[in-house]
Please model this.
Amino acid sequence: MTVRVPLATRHRSGRKTVVTPMADAVVPVTARADSASVKALSRALRYQRMLDEGRYASITEMAAAGKIE
Model:
């Protein structure tokens, strides 16, 4: 059995967007990113990278250097 799904990718602002054919003229719902979640994830990845590179020995040391709790 073979299932074929027609789709196309388009580059918008450096991101890939999957565009599928519209069925029965139904407008697709667009997803919106929660800015607080994106910001928290970005910080978490930055903190992880700093720990992996050895800039700080622990999270406590990193928090003290950044003056955060």
In short: Residues 35-69 form one domain.
